[in-house]
Structure formats: C-alpha cells, structure tokens
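Archive entry. Fields below.
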Amino acid sequence: MTAIQTRRRPAKPASAANRIWDAGPLTKVVLAFALVLSAFPIYYMFIMATRTNDEALDTPPPLLPGGNLGDNVSRLLSTEDAHFATGLINSIIISTTVTVSVVLISTLAGFAFAKLKFRGSKILLGSILLTMMVPLQQMGIVPLYEMMVNLGWTGQIQAVILPFLVNGFGVFMMTQYTTQAVPDELVEAARVDGASTMRIYASVVLPAVRPGMAVLALLTFMQNWNEFMWPSIVLNPDNPVVQTSIAALNQAHGTDYVMLFTGTAASVLPLFVVFILFGRQIVGGLMEGAVKA
Amino acid sequence: MTLNIDTPAPARRPGPRRSSGRRATGRGGGGLTRFDLRATPYFLVSPYFLLFTLFGLFPLGYTLWASLHDWELGGDKTFLGIDNYVELIADDGFWNAVVNTVGIFVISTIPQLILALMLANALNKRIRGRLFFRLGILLPLVTSVVAVAVVFTQLYGRDYGMINWFLGFFGVEPIEWQNQSWTAWIAISTMIDWRWTGYNAIILLAAMQTIPKDLYEAASLDGASPRRQFWQITIPMLRPTLVFVVFISTIGGLTLFAEPVMFEGNPTMAGGATGQYQTVAMFIVKEAFRDFDMGYASAAAWMLFALILVGILINYSFTRRIGGNK
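PREDICTED_STRUCTURE:
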C-alpha cells in the first residue's frame, strides 16, 4: 500500500526509508525558484500592459501595475496594421472548429481501434503512429498552398481550418484512453443485449471516455491557438489570426512596447481562463497519457 | 501502481449484467448484425483516413513530385530529376540553416532534459501544495509561442532589456543578442526551454510515480545514497518515458520556426543579417514564398524529413543506452 502513503502524508513517518520522500530544504528552494522563473515573464507581460512606454524603459523596470491599461487597449484595437479584434475572433472560430472535429473523429477512431476487431486494424493504427513522425506542416506547405489557390480560399479562414481537421496524436491518445477506460466485458454485455456498434459507442463508450476527451480538447485548442507558420503564409494581413496579428504589430510598432505587450497579454488570456478552470484535469490528463504512452 | 496519480481516473463501470433470458435478442438481427460487426469499424475510422489522405498524404507525395521540378506557382513546371537535391547539397545557405537548427536543438534540449529531471524529482517528494507547484511549472505551456517570443525578445533587448541590465551587475558589457550566432542560439533556446521544461517535468513525474517504492526501500536498507538511488533506480526505470520525451523534442526542435522568426521581428525569413539563426523551416518558407522557388523548397522539405529521421535514430540509440547497464 505504498501508493496511499504518498497521497496522504502520515502523521509520523514510519521509518528512515520513508523519510527520504519528505521534501528537504533544497527541494523547496528548487521548486520555489522554478515557480518564480515560470511566472515572472507572464507577470512582467501583464505589468507592461498597464504602463506607458516611458515607464517601460526605466531601469530597473517597473514591477507593479500602472494605470495605463485602458489607453493601451484602445490603441491596440484601433491600430490599422494589426486588425487585432478580427484576429482574436478568427482564432476563436478556427480553434473551436478544429477542436470539435479532432475530438469527434479521434473518439470514433479510438473506439474502433481499442475495442473492435477488424481486418487491418493493426496496420492502420501503425500507419497513424508512423505519420506522427512526419513534419506534415513543413512538408505540406507547397501543395497545400497551391490547393488553396486553386480553390480560391487564400486569405480565408477555411484555409487554416481544413488541414488541421484530423490529427494522428488525437487518434493515438483516444485509442490508449478507450483501451483502459472501457472494460471489454461491458462492450460484450451490450452486444449480448442487442445493441448495435453505434449504440454501444453512444451509450457505453462516450460516457466513459469523457475525461480523455476533455484533455484532448484542451491540448488541441491550445495547439491551434498557437498555429503560426501556416496562417502567416496563407492568410492576408487584413484577415489575420491572433498570432499573425501580433507578428504584424511587432513589425510595424516594435518600439511601442506597452501596446505590443497588451496584445500578447490579450492573446494568452483565453488560454489562462481555460487553464484556471481546468488546470487540475489538464495536469491529471497529461500525467495519465504519459504513463500509457 | 498507478493509484498515486491523482487524476480523474476513468470510472470503472459495474461489471457486465448478464441476463441469460435476453441472450437470444442479440443474435436476432442475423445478417444485419453481421454487417454491423464487419463494416462499422471501417466506417468509424474512415473520417480520419479520408481527411488525412486529402490533407496529409496527398501533400506529402505531391511535395516529392514538386521537388523533382523547377516548379513555379501557376507557371511552368520543368522536370529536373534530382537537380534540386544536388543543388541543395551544394548550397551553403541550406547547410547554414541545418547547423543553426541542430545547434539550437542541442543547446536547448540537453539543459531542458536535465532541468526537467531535477524538477520531476523535486515534485515527486512529499510536499505541501503539490497541485499548486505542478500547475505553476505548467503555466508557461499555456502561453502562446508568439507572446513568449515577444516578451523574451524585449528582455534580451540591448539597451533596455532586463537581462543585459542584470548581467551589468557582474560587469558584463551590454550584449547585442541577435548579432552573433551563439548568443542568438542561447536566446532562442531559453524561449523554448522556458515554455517546455515544465511540461516535460510533468510527463517524467508521471512515470516516476509508477516506480515501485519498495525498490527504493530495499536500496536504502542496503545503504544506497539518494543520489545513487536516483541514478541506479529512477533513471533506468524512466527509460521508455525519456525515449518518448526525446522523440517529441526532436520533432519540435528540428521544425523550429515561430521563435526565431519573432526574434528577428520582420518576416523576411532571413534569420539575421548573415542568417545566423535561420532554421530549416525558415529556409523552406523563404525559398517557397519569398523567392517563389517551390521545387527547391519542396526538396528542402524532404531533406528536413531525412534530418528528423536521422535525429530520431541518433537519439533513440543514445537514450537506449541510458541505464542499459544496470
């Protein structure tokens, strides 16, 4: 029962062997230092977003919030070259659409690979693992761009949505998750009761894999929110995503630090909201996925 | 031993409720049921494979085809055979990009793995507020690449950057970080490491928690020091996870794009005045969309794939050796 011991700290450590699991002062210093390093650039970014450019260049730099946030935000939104609000809305639409698609397609395929017997399933799953090694993004830019030109979709957001609708990692993750979250006996029992495969998917599998779906959804949303290379190629500056909008801002107003930092702060805010709401599940899901991988 | 991972463990459903009386109904469908069993699995995996063929496999093959041509967008396409590859192998600019990419990969990945191991080991101890610490070191992951690059580029600024200001206390003259390749590599590596070390630490921590504690108890009864236990028990037991982490880092590191582009601040894809931090991904985009030489860019894309395969092989044989000699 050693597992329980790490979870609930016993009042009195039973033995010397046990005591090595207590955090010593060095451990605490290391962790505190890591925490400060992790948080500082983010904190700095938000502080700068509330300051003026003169204050931003002070040495030492300001470490407490100022009162200039409103002005920075209104300048950010009215900057012609960046189309920041458009970028924000586009990113929300793109990331949401892709996330719904990836999660749905991955759960369907994951169920088939994990719980159904069919000819060629091993080879198909193996092929997915192999393609995870291929840098499809970089490899595909020339043909994908030509495809979007032929369809007349350059500059439009469907050009950024389509290539990301499926994702090998998603199928792999949901296969792993379904394998251990849904007992075989349960699937068999449903079969005996006369349920069709789709019925089993809807009423047995889906309820059981919901935590895995949540983690995949969060990871996919984050990944697409961060997409930079392909949008910067296929979209125009007047219809950007949030990342390319900041890049444009950086290029045209690179010395207007506080406005730039207001933009970057706004671009990470949606992710932070998600992280604060679901942080525990994200950590749990990441760790669970890691052990299974 | 997965009990001690505090995750929303998938709920174990109650066991099968077999009611022998209803057994017959399942077989009643006959042909329809057999069809369902045979065909539905393919129906379930088909959306993935359809879309993947269209947006993954087809572009891959098409890139290979394009790489054998002098390929202009919407213009002439002249067959060249392997000329693009021959030219690429003789192209100093390409090799410069390869050296930069591998250089940044090495100086970012090695410290990152060591730090992630240290952090995971620290997080594996019994400490108050574990979840708080875990969330804290994962925080950089949920920022965006471009935001990180903007903030760090400012921190690395020559005149007003906080890093030069800090180094000034130790008598270091202000550094123009973009100017030299090694300073630029270091700056870009810190952006990568800041964002990914915590993530890797969490993955390694998950694996550490599956190592049976009795192993450590037995070792300490035998008088093995904590340091010795770390090297003789923890590291060998972590090997599969290390392989996974290195695999992911290799792919991510060799396709590096956003950080160096933002570090430069303008989208020329040149990677500095003499290309001192131009990566292979930047080289591909530059050839394709600045110089409009799509065939050449396609050849470079296949070379990048070859580079990744070599990288994975080297890293795999290296990681395999870690802890192999217990």
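CURATOR_NOTE: The domain at 82-252 of chain A is CATH 1.10.3720.10 (MetI-like fold).
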